[in-house]
Amino acid sequence: MVREIEEALHNIYEHDYKDDQTLEATSLQFRLLKDNGFTVQSDMFNKFKDNERNFKKSLTSDMEGLLDLYEAAHLRVHGDDIIEESLAFNTTHSSLAKVAGTIEYPLSAFVSHAVYRPIRKSWLRLEARRFISIYGDDASHDELLMNFVELGFNLLQISH
């Protein structure tokens, strides 16, 4: 299983998916690759900027994308201006804390929690448990997937 994940990450890293991706997909790609030790340039976010080199205001309506961009910004390194700008954009134009009251559950729960404690600063096992709870409350969740995820989580707990 680990080998398949590594192969998938290498495949994503090797191929140029930058041009046709959404903010959400680009942010997730950046976060997953960076979190797994790949050297990833933040210039992949330039396509979300306008002619004046600011993040496009139209992005404020893409809450899933902004949430993933916010999470990705917590992997920034000193001097990474694009990621610093993305964090400022998130904070200034679409303060996630404010918006959390105007979006529907379960996204609102994810946004509120990200503002309180980004994934990067959390214990993954606790985050997994939280995600399972929130996803299970969503009326549109996939029951088979939910059963599989809960079973996997419970097996992991038993093994430790």
TrEMBL record:
Q: In the record, which residues are listed under signal peptide? A: none
Q: Which Gene3D superfamilies does the record associate with it? A: Terpene synthase, N-terminal domain
The UniProt entry, under PANTHER family, shows: (+)-DELTA-CADINENE SYNTHASE, OS04G0344100 PROTEIN-RELATED
List the GO biological process terms: terpenoid biosynthetic process
Domain Terpene synthase N-terminal, chain residue ranges per copy:
3-114
Native organism:
Gossypium australe
Q: Which domain of life is it from?
A: Eukaryota
GO MF annotations in UniProt: terpene synthase activity
Supply the name of the protein.
(+)-delta-cadinene synthase isozyme XC14-like
The UniProt entry, under SUPFAM superfamilies, shows: Terpenoid cyclases/Protein prenyltransferases (SSF48239)
